[in-house]
Amino acid sequence: MLFADLINFGKPYSDRASEFKDIKFNIDDVIAIHARKVSLGEYIAHLLPLNGIQDINYCMSIILGEDFLSVYKSLLASDHVPKPIGELFPLTMSEVDALFQLRHLYCHELAPKVPVQPRKVEQYISSTATFVWYTEELIQSRFLNDA
To answer: How far apart are alpha carbons 38 and 41 in whole angstroms?
Structure first.
């Protein structure tokens, strides 16, 4: 949804969407966008590869015009805790990736051979929630307010 929101926000984000070279439109897609059945941002976001943290970084970096993870990791956690997120939560990226891998395993494999510890899954979900929270904070404070 964040990709769609940024593209639908307009320039400069909508202009940068043209850098996604694998996205192709057909006449039915254009008609649906024109009829406002789907927005341009929703259409493009639906087609973006999102299979891990590197895909997120790739797509966000194109839309934002700079390396997303570098900006994310340097974001200060809060006024009360003046440390960068990357320093405060050093395992977040690897745990978000681990959750993507588990999702792939359970959605596309017949039966995992190695049991997953519930506490690990809870930690992966917690790290992913942290990632989403601070990503939203970053986009609102730095990119949408400056645009």
So the answer is: 8
Phi then psi dihedrals of residue 119, to 5 deg: -65, -35
For 28-86, the DSSP string reads HHHHHHHTTSS-HHHHHHHHS--SSHHHHHHHHHHHHTS-HHHHHHHSBS-SSS-SBHH
Res 147: pLDDT: 52
Number of H helices, E strands in the chain: 9, 0
C-alpha distances in angstroms, 73 versus 82, 99, 132? Answer: 13, 19, 13
Q: What is the pLDDT of residues 63-78, one digit of tens each?
A: 999 999 999 999 888 7
pTM of the model: 0.85
Distances (CA, A) of 144 to 30, 69, 127, 128, 147: 27, 17, 24, 22, 5
CA distances in angstroms from 16 to 7, 13, 20, 28, 106, listed in the order given: 8, 5, 8, 23, 34
Asked if 74 and 84 touch (Cβ cutoff 8 Å), the reply is yes
Q: Identify the DSSP state of 117.
A: P
Predicted local distance difference test score (pLDDT) of residue 112? 67
